[in-house]
Amino acid sequence: MPDAPKTPYRRLLLKLSGEALIGDGEYGISPAIVEQIASEVAEVHALGLELAVVIGGGNIFRGVKGAAQGMDRTSADYMGMLATVINALALQEGFERCGLHTRVMSGIEMPRVAEPFIRRRAMRHMEKGRVVVFAAGTGNPYFTTDTAAALRAMEIGADAVLKATKVDGIYDADPMKVPNATRYENLTYDECLSRHLRVMDATAISLCRENELPIIVFKLSERGNILRVARGETIGTTIR
Question: Using 50, 70 and 90 to split pLDDT, how confident is the model at 3?
């Protein structure tokens, strides 16, 4: 491992949505976007930080949407979990092309493509300088990958959850629809819940609140933002 990190953090968990991998398309995985994310993660790793990633599956299949169209919710959620495994393997390939030793750990056992999630093994991987990508959410239906991110972050002892989004923080209205929407720099967990700010689901925010785990929400598409957050720069919105 490199020397002690020049950041206020020791271990971080990065939450990426599946949609982040689409790029300019309507669905699927953009190799260019995977390469961009991988290069930024490599920069963070070079600081000496231990890093884990939780990836969603909305670019391939979203369980809630499938359930809304008449599918059984449990089956739809399992399909969504399998989509996250595809994304995790794509990230692993991108990370390793950037020279990062990477392990995919799945909440659903599938030993031919990923290791099962075992907390101590995940922590050992990070201690050895490997990036760990957590796939298949919590391994249970009815839980989002946001909740999986909060849960895994607490299990591995992360110092914060970095939530990468399409916008540069949390606003009081949708900035895509309301041009003069106001961005919050800091929020409490209770404010997020009471104002129904949908940056993460209520279960994820409640878990973070109960364990005093900060959430930093920032814009993924701006090059260098992951590194800026890891260095402790004030960007986006911090929930604590």
Answer: low
| DSSP helix/strand/coil, 169 | coil
pLDDT grade for 141, boundaries at 50, 70 and 90: very high
Q: Is the pLDDT of residue 62 over 90?
A: no
- Look at residue 187 and give its three-state secondary structure: strand
Residue linked to tokens 């093994």: 121
Query: Rounded to two decimals, what is the model's pTM?
Result: 0.92
108 and 136 Cβ atoms separated by less than 8 Å? yes
Edge-to-edge strands, sheet with 50-55: 115-116, 102-106, 131-135, 50-55, 11-16, 160-165, 215-219, 237-239, 186-187
Q: Which residue has the tokens 């949390």?
A: 170
The residues with which 53 forms a beta bridge, in sequence order, are 14, 133
Cα 89 to Cα 8: distance, rounded to the nearest angstrom: 30
Can you list the domains of the chain with their CATH numbers? 11-239 (3.40.1160.10)
Is pLDDT above 90 for 17? yes
